[in-house]
Amino acid sequence: MNIQLHDASKEFGSFRALDRLSLQVPSGELTALLGPSGCGKTTLLRVIAGLEFLDRGSLLLDGRDATRTPVQERQIGFVFQHYALFGHLSVFENIAFGLRIKPRSQRLPEPEIRARVLELLAMVQLEHVAQRHPAQLSGGQRQRIAFARALAPRPRLLLLDEPFGALDARVRQDLRQWLRQMHALVPVTTLFVTHDQAEAVDVADRVVVMKQGRVEQSGTMEELLANPVSPFVADFMGGVQLFHGRLENGYVRIGEVRVQAEIPRGNRESAGVGVICIRSHDWRVQRLPGGEESWQTVVRHARPQGAIVRLGLESLQGAGRFDVELTREQYEQDRFQPGETVFAQPSQARVFASGGP
Amino acid sequence: MSGVVEIVPIAGMGGVAVGKAAPLREEGEQPRHSLSDATLSSLPVARRAPNRGSPIPLTLGITLLYLGLVVLLPLSMTVAWSLRLDGEQLRQVILSPRVLAAFEVSFGAALVAATVNGVFGFMTAWVLVRYDFPGKRLLDALVDLPFALPTAVAGLTLAALYAQSGWIGAVLIGWGIPVAYTPTGIVVALTFIGLPFVVRTVQPVLMAVDAELEEAAAILGANRWQTFVRVTLPTVLPALLTGVTMALARGLGEYGSVIFIAGNRPFVSEIVPLLIVTKLEQYDVAGATALAMLTLALSFALLLIINLMQAWARRNLPR
Fold first, then answer.
1. Domain total for chain B?
2. ipTM, 2 dp
3. 0.90 cut: is pTM over it?
4. Could you say which of B1, B14, B20 has the minimum Cβ distance to residue A260?
């Protein structure tokens, strides 16, 4: 099911949760709604589900206007952060709920309901807990049951609200992998909310980055990483360092350092304030000065993290502290020690004029 | 160097690539109560670290002594007094038609009143929890009034209202429904007295019902009525049963508010507590305690049944 929103606004009192938001989500993909808390991502999800209704604007599901369609008629599956399983029903009956609730004319015969529930239990690998109650399950198990329950009535769209938010890190890792596998198995259009970019990167095909009730940028993971439209997106996608500097004729000056960078189109002012965005692994670090654009820094720490080594550097020219990621091979060549003076040169940089796009 | 950024592999972003496509781990087969969920609050206290100091903890000792003095001692006196009658006398007291009729009236009226309160008390709690309206706080406070009002005052007020000349009584008698001085009057009084028990036990539980549960049901296709019957009501049912039980227990023992409106006609609208008082006034202490004994036994049996129902509900509707 594809989703389109036009000029969608939703207010709670004086708080503007959605602010003339427009968005298209293509069918069949796994899309992450990413943004800091309070950016309106959960509200957006609830509007699509039909738990909230827009004050202004419209929502189209599969091209049909669904702005006012009651929640029961939308054929949507929803997974809550805190599972919202029915405590008085067994796991089996929880999953069967959406099938049994249908009017008699549309309801599957009992054997088929049983078969469908067992099929879903097998899919989430929890056949053995069918007769237990949710309170007897672990968090990860509950979330998988919530997932199975949402899928039981064969929804056209699956919405997940911070589905792994209440789980501990290890279980969360597993469930991310698992969600990908499930999506490959049941390719229903899936939209999930998260504030964790690592989770979005790990799970989603496409990402919608939200900020203050609007869509800041949407696209595939690669697009957003390669071409962030704003420092906010770049920062949120992670793995970058932001520096504030002045734009001066094709250069950006940060403290006493100068970096050559292309000023983005539409911001042709030759001078002004800008944000420069450098990815942590886009640095060359060496002991000798490398020309005008190499930054003189002191090594504060060097921390191996798996295949990479993270160097904490502090600029001696007023550009602040920043992290640099080196591959282990790069690091092994030089073995920079804390306290040592080194020169770091960005190999790629992206500039955003302040107030720019 | 330029501002054009190439597509790069997503390396080293907070250890993203670490996760292996391993089969899902079972995080412990045993039920695990994570701190983040509501289960913890409902864990029985006994699950906490047991007191290892003395064989009988101080608080337990005090509680037992207190219950012994306040509850068990008076109750055992009742038994002791009633044992002054021999079996035959006991049988005569208990099986006299007037006594049996009084028991029927007492239990019948208390059951009907508790049931009525179960329905309308639940509704009141629902309205107080789910809706906002002007005067809500006042209504909320009003619910407690039957607790606070001296029962005799309640009885007098109700008798005045429901008497044939009273505001409501006059209307009802016009429809051929006499209330004052009939068992219906008793039900009215007991309903008045019992309402707060149901409201005050259901209200906090209803407040704690997660809105997401009802939303989840709606998304799965349940309409409002189905959501109520299949999700909300089962969640609140144990509390509702508790409230009804308390209203019932109160109704069985109620005296002050009933005697004014009941008319106290033997075989028609005479309640057991009144019969006990009558016997006491005739210096028939043994007879009075025999009735008290029987009331006690029946009440206990009734409460036991309802407690078993609650235990069943809790077992089948765990939160």
1. 1
2. 0.81
3. no
4. B1
